[in-house]
Every structure is written in structure tokens, then in C-alpha cells.
Amino acid sequence: EEATASGVQRMAGLKEWLLVFLSMHFAHYCCTRIDDDACIYTGNSQHRCQPKVNYRHKEKEVLDQILGPGSYDARIRPSGVNGTDGPTIVHINLFVRSIMTISDNKMEYSVQLTFREQWMDERLKFNDYNGKMKYLTLTEASRVWMPDLFFSNEKEGHFHNIIMPNVYIRIFPNGLVLYSIRISLTLSCPMNLKLYPLDRQTCSLRMVSYGWTTDDLVFLWKEGDPVQVVKNLHLPRFTLEKFLTDYCNSKTNTGTHSVFILKWKLYESCCGV
């Protein structure tokens, strides 16, 4: 009888151990298949698995939260540095895709750019769910406040809409906003042709705020390589010697406006070579 009781106890212990082993194995299998973040570990070392989070649905919730009615007003500019009442700082970055034409007859040139602006808007901060949500993407610029930049020496220009509009806005968890768009511009370039055909010319791309004065909006070139140029850039009849970035302020009857400039130093290739 004692042997029988001992055997029963051993069988009961073995059964209990087997149940614990199977439960732990199942929990590990569940966690492995779903996601490490989907498991909750309790004090008694038991595992309970939850359905995997759909972060695309979370993106919609976040967008509704930060851009919903009563939460955000795109008519109001963001605060200055560290939430102060100072001017909004917008950093500019350009990628020059091509320079299509340089006309000394019309004194103009045409260029295609990827144009980028970055600024902080603390009203757009959001929970990144432990790094799972790196940024939000929008294609409607009207949803957020936008700098009112224009190209003051532009003759004509257009956006690119094939296959879809070549534009996006990214909102990062800390409130950083990145605006990127592909544009083509024809810009005036007054030229001195006294030394033609061995002349050197300086063409510029001038950018300025249309309505905001420097009390409210300041443009700065992005630190560290603010202008990139496509490799093997081909220029008709000219060679790009170098480019320079610069700043100035424009005083008008309505106030002082922030202006920033990209200057192209060009020299004409002899005999069109």
C-alpha cells in the first residue's frame, strides 16, 4: 500500500510538472509567433498573450488626436525655440536634380529641384509606442501650418503630379515636420556678356516669406550640406564652378522679411564644348 501511495504521488507530481512545462512551452510559442511586446509576464511567471497591435490603426488614432477638430489650428504658426514667442525657425535643404536650360538670350535658367523644409511644431507631438511609430505621413499640406515661402526671381514654375503628386509631409514624434516636394522652375538671371563667349555668370535662386516678417518667421539653411547636386550634372554650354548659400533681409512697406539665396557660379565652355 505504501508503494502504491508513493507511486500515485510520483504520478501526480509528474502530471503537475508536465502541465507546467506545457503551459510555459505554449506561452513561449505564442509569444514567438505574435510579438515579444504582446506577452504580459505576471508575478507567478505565468504568461498571457494578447493580440498583436495594428499600428496602422494606431496611426489613424494619432492623426485624429493631433489634427482633429479643436486640437489643431493650421492658421496659427508654431511657437519659437523652446516654446517661446520668438519666430518660427524653418530650415531649408535642396537637392538639384537637373539644370535643363541656361539662356543668355532670355537671361534665364530652368532647374528641377527636390525642395525640403523642416520646422518644429510642438502641437504635433505624439506617442511613438516605444519606437514602433517612427513618423506619420501626410500628402495634404493644408492639414498643418506651412511656411509661405515663394521664389522671388521666378518667371514660371510647376509641380510634378505624375503618377501622383510628388509631395509629402512627415510628422515625427517630437513634433518635427518635414515637407518635401519636387518642383521645376524657370528663374531670371541677369547676365554680363562683355566677355562673351568666355564669360562667367552668377545666377541665383532667391527665396523669401511672402507675408510673415522676421518677427514671426526666419529661414535658415540646414546645417551640414544644405544643397546637394546630382552626380554628373550636365549643363548646356556652361560648367558649374561652385555654388554658395547666403542670407539677407528684405525691407518693404509691410516689414522686414527673411531672404535666403543660392548662388550659382558658372562659366561658359569655349565653343559650346
From TrEMBL:
It is a multi-pass membrane protein. Residues 60-244 form the Neurotransmitter-gated ion-channel ligand-binding domain. Keywords: Cell membrane, Chloride, Chloride channel, Disulfide bond, Ion channel, Ion transport, Ligand-gated ion channel, Membrane, Postsynaptic cell membrane, Receptor, Signal, Synapse, Transmembrane, Transmembrane helix, Transport. The keyword Ion transport applies. GO terms for cellular component: chloride channel complex; postsynaptic membrane. GO terms for molecular function: extracellularly glutamate-gated chloride channel activity; transmembrane signaling receptor activity. Residues 1-32 form the signal peptide. InterPro entries: Neur_chan_lig-bd, Neur_chan_lig-bd_sf, Neur_channel, Neurotransmitter_ion_chnl_CS. Pfam families: Neur_chan_LBD (PF02931). It is found in: Postsynaptic cell membrane. Belongs to the ligand-gated ion channel (TC 1.A.9) family. Glutamate-gated chloride channel (TC 1.A.9.4) subfamily. PANTHER family: NEUROTRANSMITTER GATED ION CHANNEL. This is Glutamate-gated chloride channel. It comes from Sipha flava. The lineage of its organism: Eukaryota, Metazoa, Ecdysozoa, Arthropoda, Hexapoda.
